[in-house]
């Protein structure tokens, strides 16, 4: 709230100006708007009846924005001015946006709490139960590797002999090892 305080428009100069110089305009003190008309009095807050608020809320629930003709008709029906209805709807939309934003934030936080509790539950269970990864169990190649029998002595010896012969054959060429074709696919990799 501002108070109107009259202030002198001139500043006293403690010395005299030399003759022949044009007079200097008096210097203003304070804010430029301070020396003008006093500020307007604030209009008291408008209070609406319960019936008016109930009708405004009902209409707002159906329709967030009113066309000027709809607003004028509602104002006439409720014995309010057009400006009052317009302002009430603007304020109500602001409140509605804030409430929906708060609700979304509360939902987001609830979802985060749920995810954190589920994560904690999974971590707790994994500490006490053996790991059974469904992807690993359903992977056919892993399942096949788990069912392999150790190499028999005959198969292993034959595979090594074939690999040695192929290796000897390929090394007799003048190519470096990294340019030679791969050894037989029947040879064990490990």
From TrEMBL:
Q: Any idea where this protein resides?
A: Nucleus
What GO molecular function terms would the record report?
DNA-binding transcription factor activity, RNA polymerase II-specific; RNA polymerase II cis-regulatory region sequence-specific DNA binding
* Recorded GO CC terms: nucleus
Organism, by scientific name, is Nephila pilipes (Giant wood spider)
Chief place where the protein resides = nucleus
Signal peptide start and end residues = none
Ranges for region Disordered: 28-47, 162-190
DNA-binding stretch(es), residue numbering of this chain: 41-100
Gene responsible for this protein: TLX3
Q: Which residues form the Homeobox domain?
A: 39-99
The entry's keywords: Developmental protein, DNA-binding, Homeobox, Nucleus
Which Pfam families would you find in this protein's record? Homeodomain
Biological process GO annotation list? animal organ development
Q: Which CDD domains match?
A: homeodomain (cd00086)
Q: What is this protein's name?
A: T-cell leukemia homeobox protein 3
Which regions are flagged for Polar residues bias?
A: 181-190
